[in-house]
Specification:
Radius of gyration: 27 Å
Distance between the termini: 106 Å
CATH topology of the largest domain: D-Maltodextrin-Binding Protein, domain 2
CATH architecture of the largest domain: 3-Layer(aba) Sandwich
Number of strands: 13
Structural class: alpha/beta
Strand content: 15-25%
Order of helices and strands: HEHEHEHEEEHEHEHEEHEEEH
Largest sheet: 6 strands, mixed
Helix content: 40-55%
C-alpha cells in the first residue's frame, strides 16, 4: 500500500514537471516566432521608363526575398526628387537611383550605393548617353544640333539631363542659352524623349543607351528609323542603394543576396535582363560629383 502511494506521488510530480516544461516550451516558441516576424522593406524607383522600372526588378526582388527571408515591397514615384524624399522620410529603405539622383540621396537621405547590374555580354555596369535623330533629319554631326529643338528626359536624370548638358558644353552649347537652341524641353522619360524624335516633336534627344537598347529590343522602333550622332564617355552605373538606417547586419544580407542572385535564377534590372550584379561603393560616384561641380561653374 505504501509503495503504491509513493508511486502515485512520483507520477503526480512527474506530471507537474511535464506540464511546466510544456508551458516553458510554448512560451519559448511563441517568443521565438514573435522575434522571427518577417522584416519588411520598401524599395523605390525613379521614373526612367513607361515600360519597366519596378517590373524589371521583379525576379531579382523575389530571389532576394527567398535568400534573406525579408519582404520587399515596391514603390514607384513620379519624379527623381520624390525618390530621394521617400528615403529621407523613411518611406523607402532601398532604392534604384540614377547616378545623379544617388549623389543627392547620399548627401541628404543617408543612402549608400551597394550594387549595379551588368547586362549579358558586357564587361561592366557602365552605360552611355546617346544623342539620337530621325534617319531623314538634316543633322549629320553633333555640332549641327545648334539652333535645333532638343528633347531631354527629366530634370535630375543622369543620362537624360546631366550628361547631355556636359557633352553639349564640350562643343560650347548650353541648354540654358536661348541662342543655342530653338527649344529645349523635358519629355518626362527616356522613352518619351525618343518618341518625341520619332514623332517629329524634336530634332534630337539625349537619352540613356539602356533605354534605347531596350526599346529597340521590344520593337518600339527599328534601327533604320534613327541615327545616333553622338555617344558620351562611359557613365557610372545607376546603383541599387539602401538606407544607412537599416542595420548593418541586414544591409550585408541584402547586398550578399543581390550579388549572388544570378546563381538562383534569371534576373533583371535597369534596361531589362542582367547577367549579374557587381558591388559598387559611394566613391565610384565621385566622378559624377566632379561633373556636376564643373557644369555648375559654367552656368
Amino acid at each position: 500500500m505504501l509503495a503504491n502511494n509513493n508511486n502515485n506521488k512520483k507520477e503526480y510530480r512527474m506530471m507537474i514537471i511535464l506540464k511546466r516544461l510544456v508551458l516553458v516550451l510554448m512560451f519559448f516558441f511563441t517568443f521565438a516566432n514573435a522575434q522571427a516576424e518577417t522584416k519588411k522593406f520598401n524599395m523605390v524607383f525613379v521614373p526612367a521608363s513607361e515600360k519597366g522600372d519596378e517590373s524589371d526588378y521583379t525576379s531579382l526582388i523575389s530571389i532576394v526575398e527567398k535568400l534573406t527571408g525579408f519582404e520587399i515591397n515596391t514603390v514607384k514615384v513620379t519624379d527623381y526628387n520624390a525618390a530621394v524624399e521617400a528615403m529621407r522620410a523613411g518611406r523607402a529603405d532601398i532604392a534604384w537611383y540614377g547616378g545623379k539622383t544617388y549623389i543627392i540621396a547620399a548627401e541628404i537621405a543617408n543612402a549608400e550605393a551597394f550594387a549595379a547590374g551588368v547586362r549579358p555580354g558586357e564587361k561592366n555596369a557602365s552605360y552611355f548617353t546617346y544623342f539620337v535623330v530621325k534617319k531623314d533629319n538634316q543633322i549629320k554631326n553633333f555640332s549641327d544640333v545648334k539652333g535645333k529643338t532638343l528633347a531631354l528626359n527629366t530634370i535630375g536624370s543622369t543620362s537624360g539631363d546631366l550628361i547631355p548638358q556636359v557633352e553639349l558644353s564640350k562643343i560650347s552649347l548650353l541648354t540654358t542659352n536661348k541662342d543655342d537652341f530653338k527649344n529645349v524641353f523635358y519629355a518626362g522619360s527616356h522613352d518619351a524623349c525618343l518618341l518625341s524624335v520619332l514623332n517629329n516633336q524634336a530634332d534630337v534627344c539625349g537619352m540613356s543607351s539602356r533605354n534605347f537598347d531596350a526599346r529597340l529590343t521590344d520593337g518600339t522602333f527599328k534601327m533604320d528609323q534613327v541615327r545616333i550622332i553622338h555617344r558620351s564617355d562611359p557613365v557610372p552605373p545607376p546603383p541599387l542603394a539602401y538606407s544607412k538606417k537599416i542595420s548593418l547586419e541586414d544591409r550585408k544580407k541584402i547586398k550578399k543576396a543581390v550579388l549572388e542572385a544570378h546563381k538562383h535564377g534569371t534576373i533583371g534590372g535597369y534596361g531589362g535582363k542582367m547577367s549579374h550584379y557587381i558591388e559598387v561603393k559611394d566613391s565610384d560616384y565621385d566622378l559624377l560629383r566632379d561633373v556636376v561641380a564643373l557644369l555648375e561653374s559654367k552656368q
